[in-house]
Each structure stands twice: as structure tokens, then as C-alpha cells.
Amino acid sequence: xxxxxxxxxxxxxxxxxxxxxxxxxxxxxxxxxxxxxxxxxxxxxxxxxxxxxxxxxxxxxxxxxxxxxxxxxxxxxxx
Length: 79
Description:
The chain is mainly alpha-helical.
């Protein structure tokens, strides 16, 4: 999901502040292409957190299984 960016409104505000139309239009395109493309959305963060949680759950399960296996092996070796 992308972020909506009003390049026309951005350009018009720059022109109102005194920038030429050409400069304002180019600045708006530059902001859209270079700045907005690198922003992180809430959905991006949620997906990254879900992935991290899944990986941690798998790692915890693997560590628990290995520990249980070693414990049972040690008990059978002692007994």
C-alpha cells in the first residue's frame, strides 16, 4: 500500500510562497519520487513485526526441543 501524495497541491503551495511554476513542479515530482517512496507505512511496520514474531517463535520452539532432547538423553544416560 502506497502513500497518496498531492503533487499538484504541493506545487501550488510552493508557487504561493514565491517559487516559479517550473521550480515548484520539479520540486513536487522530486518529493514524490525520492522522499515519499522511502516512507514506511503502518502496514509495513506490522508486517515486519509479524515476521520477527514468527521467527522468534520458531527459534524458541527449536531451542525448547533441543533442550528437551538433551535432557532426556542425559536422564537415560544416568539411569
